[in-house]
Design goal:
The complex is a heterodimer of chains A (about 425) and B (about 475). With about 425 residues, chain A is an alpha+beta fold. Helices cover about 45% and strands about 10% of the residues of chain A. Chain A is built from 16 helices and eleven strands. In chain A, strands 1, 2, 3, 4 and 10 form a five-stranded antiparallel beta sheet that branches. By secondary structure, chain B is mainly alpha-helical. Chain B is about 60% helix and about 5% strand. Chain B has 25 helices and four strands. A four-stranded antiparallel beta sheet of chain B has the order 1-2-4-3, with no helix packed on it. In chain B, strand 3 and strand 4 form a beta hairpin. Classes of the chains: A alpha+beta (about 425), B mainly alpha (about 475).
């Protein structure tokens, strides 16, 4: 039953079979094109292929899903990425005037990666991911999904598992597709609360002076408080180790409080994170009001710092950033980059995602029981990939429905 | 005939007119420049309006490179505007408002033509124009600004009291009461119209709409200005090729679009005229060079002293500079004669004297040649003596700066800042900064430039200002004696 035992996800034969028989090109096409026929959103779209041996082919474009499939099967890339819609067909890039080739539209995309959580997660590190660290990702999804829908009013959201330890979000609302780089940068600024890299120490940029939290973060805080106690305190036990609680103490602005807590926790190194957090809360509660307010603010900051989505901002800021297409195979894990229902994200288990090896075995099993058909187009229907492709199909049909409704609205009503 | 006499009448008696606003071609001081100017202008007016505006925009741009604060930038821009492009409020009755506003209007559109040609120029033009608009908006009279805002449809939805009540804990800070909710205005716009406020989380967002408080209303206006101008410039760029047939305008526009490189080349004719009693003598030049000359002229002077010679274009550049500085032709001949110590009188008279007299307009076509401006020195030409900030390598420039100016207060600690502006291509800013550092003892502070925040655009401007700064002390002494 070992998935990687007999089928190697990096072997060209495996990838070729996957593209030929399983990859849902039609669903991808409909999702990108917003219509069942290829529109400019598809034909002027950049595809970039990564071939074995670090070969990277940019500025490919295709006039139909079939053409894309043909090329993918011919090149057999380890993965491919989707870029923006340009003002001309990307494959004609060299023949058009340099000023006339510009990115125009692009889904608004977000990338959340587990590496950004390495300083605070205690269960795994680096490339590793388990059900427990998925809690950070599901917290991020919860906050980001709510914020995008409520605050920005977008609702054509597609969440895609990145195949190893992260998640991508593609937003296909018309307005979101049309955002300029500047507007994308503003939106990312609204969403980003943690700045600074690993070396300089991460800092929150949420308050101006000693003011109360800005409204969007007050909303987020409601969600995050619960996540904080379940995930950070109970599950991850982030303040259990000495390094863990020292990191917490650094965030407390009152040196008297820090000393008292440090003394208590050094004496009793086995105190759980939950107990430590209530120690802190107790001290704050007993303070006179003038000292209590900044400490309460610091407590809110800690909650946000540990649970708020950590975004890879560069991905979202520019229209011409490329992002791995859904349903590609992650070369290291062999897992398919499947869509995720954000309502079910807490229940999602990355280790349950089908691997390419598993899918090919499923195909073999069918082959033995069924007559070998000549046409392999919809073989994914017979495998465990089906629910995921159905999810993308449903999402794409929402987009197509929207376009139909708009077209109907635009045409004069001829019915009596 | 009838028209002109009527026009004269209105000009003669502007004070008796009760309310002219309705009749004005430009009812507001602020302008979104939606309509192109549709009147006849002379080519000269075309160029002058644009040049005057360009001076202001170039100063705004170098302000950004020099890290000025908003307040400093506002002051500098206002001073410059007062000089080159005054724009008065409606309350200023005795001033011919329409004329000022016509010039503002025309200048803006000429520069659109000059700056629509490349992505980079467009971006810089939009930034500078938007800044200028912001300065004017902030200095505008409150009531006139309100009138201006209501004259345009900004497509914002005023937020009703019920809606304010519904989101009151999101919209208001601190204690909330009904009066406060009624008093403060909010405007609802698509969030993409106020990206800067969104980025800093200074608005409340709901369903893609930003609730912009009254005090941030200007953000919507500025953003609108920027977006409109961006679209208009792209349109202009597409239509520009049709203009190529007009041979009178293209050279003017080419010249203008160069103006961002070194600011506007000022035709620096000597302020030190004949009324200046202390005439400059040949033997004073060593001393003057050490105290007052910009880097480019210092290096020319030094190579002249080192080699006892300068090549043709070096002589031309330095000679014209000295002429405008106030060196008479007799003194100039004496200066060059002494400087070229290794050649004979005969050779000097034959080969060099003519050129000196020629540059003073005494030979040949007898033209009064102006001294070369920074723009000319910066543009690569036949001269090997360009602008040191541009043409020296980084190491050479640093050691040259230190050896030249360390006696005047420039230390190696100042170098990183200067080199940063040089690397960013702001050569005149670097030069201005050196001026500020070396004249700190005369009370020149950072950001002041060569007076009023102006940047160096001409070597003579640099030298004249430096000499002017050194003068007051002498006058004060004289006053005491009196």
């Amino acid at each position: 039953m070992d998935a990687t035992h007999d089928i190697d996800p990096s072997s060209p034969e495996v990838m070729l079979t996957f593209y030929r028989r399983l990859y849902p090109f039609k669903a991808i096409h409909n999702w990108l094109s917003h219509e069942p026929i290829p529109t400019r959103l598809f034909t002027h779209r950049e595809f970039a292929f990564t071939l074995p041996g670090d070969v990277y082919l940019r500025y490919n474009s295709f006039s139909s899903a079939e053409e894309l499939k043909k090329q993918v099967c011919q090149l057999n890339p380890t993965r491919f990425e989707i870029g923006p819609v340009y003002s001309a067909r990307p494959r004609d890039k060299k023949t058009v005037r340099s000023g006339a080739f510009n990115p125009l539209q692009r889904e608004l995309v977000f990338d959340i990666d587990m590496t950004d959580y390495d300083p605070i997660r205690t269960c795994c590190s680096n490339a590793g991911i388990c059900r427990r660290c998925w809690g950070f990702i599901s917290a991020a999804v919860r906050v980001l999904d709510t914020a995008i829908r409520n605050q920005f009013g977008y609702d054509k959201l597609l969440w895609v598992y990145s195949g190893r330890r992260g998640i991508h979000l593609w937003i296909s609302d018309k307005e979101a597709m049309d955002l300029t780089d500047n507007e994308r940068k503003a939106l990312v600024g609204w969403m980003t609360v943690i700045t600074g890299g690993k070396e300089t120490g991460r800092k929150l940029n949420i308050r101006s002076g000693s003011k109360s939290l800005p409204p969007p973060l007050q909303d987020a805080l409601q969600i995050l408080r619960k996540i904080f106690s379940d995930l950070i305190l109970a599950d991850q036990d982030c303040f259990g180790s000495e390094a863990g609680y020292e990191a917490l103490l650094e965030l407390i602005p009152d040196s008297g409080t820090v000393e008292r807590l440090r003394e208590k926790w050094t004496k009793d190194p086995n105190r759980s994170s939950e107990d430590k957090w209530s120690d802190f809360r107790e001290i704050v509660r007993k303070k006179p009001e003038s000292e209590r307010l900044p400490l309460q603010a610091a407590m809110e900051d800690v909650v946000i710092q540990y649970t708020y989505p950590r975004l890879d901002a560069e991905v979202s800021k520019h229209r011409n950033h490329l992002l791995k297409a859904p349903f590609c195979i992650h070369p290291k894990t062999g897992r398919v980059c499947v869509p995720i229902n954000p309502d079910q994200v807490e229940k999602f288990d990355p280790e349950m995602v089908p691997t390419v090896g598993q899918l090919l075995r499923e195909l073999d099993a069918i082959g033995k029981t069924e007559e070998q058909g000549t046409d392999h187009h919809a073989d994914w229907e017979k495998t465990s990939l089906k629910p995921y492709v159905d999810m993308l199909d449903k999402h794409a049909s929402l987009l197509m429905e929207e376009v139909r409704r708009e077209k109907r609205g635009a045409e004069p009503n001829l019915s009596w | 005939m009838y028209n002109s006499s009527k026009k004269k009448q209105t000009v003669d008696q502007p004070l008796t007119q009760v309310e002219t606003h309705g009749l004005l071609a430009y009812p507001h001081r602020l302008n979104f420049y939606d309509k192109a100017p549709l009147f006849d202008v002379t080519v000269e007016e075309f160029e002058i309006c644009a040049l005057d505006r360009l001076r202001i925009l170039a100063e705004i741009e170098s302000s950004a490179a020099r890290n000025r604060t908003w307040e400093e930038l506002k002051n500098v821009t206002e001073t410059q505007c007062g000089k080159y492009l005054p724009l008065s409020a409606n309350t200023a009755k005795s001033i011919r408002l329409d004329e000022q506003r016509r010039k503002d209007h025309l200048g803006h559109f000429v520069l659109r033509l000059a700056f629509c040609r490349s992505e980079d120029l467009r971006r810089r033009f939009i930034r500078a124009e938007t800044t200028l608009f912001k300065v004017r908006y902030e200095t505008d009279d409150y009531k006139e600004r309100e009138n201006f805002l209501s004259s345009r449809d900004f497509n914002w939805i005023p937020v009703s009291d019920e809606e304010k009540n519904q989101y009151k804990d999101r919209l208001f800070h601190g204690p909330i009461n009904d009066d406060k909710i009624k008093a403060e205005k909010f405007y609802k716009v698509k969030w993409t119209r106020v990206p800067d406020l969104v980025e800093k989380r200074r608005v409340f967002l709901k369903g893609g709409f930003a609730y912009v408080p009254g005090r941030e209303q200007s953000s919507i206006v500025f953003q609108e200005f920027e977006v409109q101008l961006g679209k208009a410039l792209e349109m202009t760029a597409r239509l520009l090729p049709r203009l190529d047939e007009d041979t009178r305008l293209v050279p003017v526009l080419d010249n203008l679009s160069q103006g961002f490189l070194a600011g506007v080349s000022s035709e620096w004719s000597g302020v030190l005229g004949s009324d200046n009693a202390n005439e400059i003598k040949a033997e004073m030049i060593d001393d003057l060079a050490r105290k007052h000359f910009p880097m480019c002229m210092r290096s020319l002077h030094e190579s002249l002293r080192r080699d006892n010679h300068l090549k043709h274009f070096g002589r031309l550049q330095y000679g014209l500079f000295l002429k405008v500085l106030g060196l008479s032709v007799e003194e100039a001949i004496a200066f060059w004669r002494k400087a070229f110590s290794r050649i004979t009188d005969d050779k000097f008279n034959k080969e060099y004297k003519y050129n000196i007299r020629h540059s003073y307009g005494l030979e040949g076509k007898r033209a009064n040649y102006p001294a070369k401006s920074c723009l000319q020195i910066l543009t690569p030409g036949p001269s090997e003596h360009g602008c040191p900030y541009r043409h020296y390598s980084a190491e050479n420039l640093q050691s040259a700066l230190l050896s030249t100016y360390s006696s005047q207060g420039l230390s190696s600690a100042d170098l990183p800042e200067i080199m940063a502006t040089v690397n960013a291509g702001h050569f005149h800013v670097a030069c201005t900064r050196v001026f500020e550092i070396t004249h700190a003892s005369c009370g020149v502070s950072k950001g002041e430039g060569v007076g009023g925040g102006e940047s160096v655009t001409h070597p003579n401007q640099y030298a004249a200002r430096s000499m002017e700064l050194a003068k007051p002390k002498v006058e004060e002494d004289a006053m005491v004696v009196d």
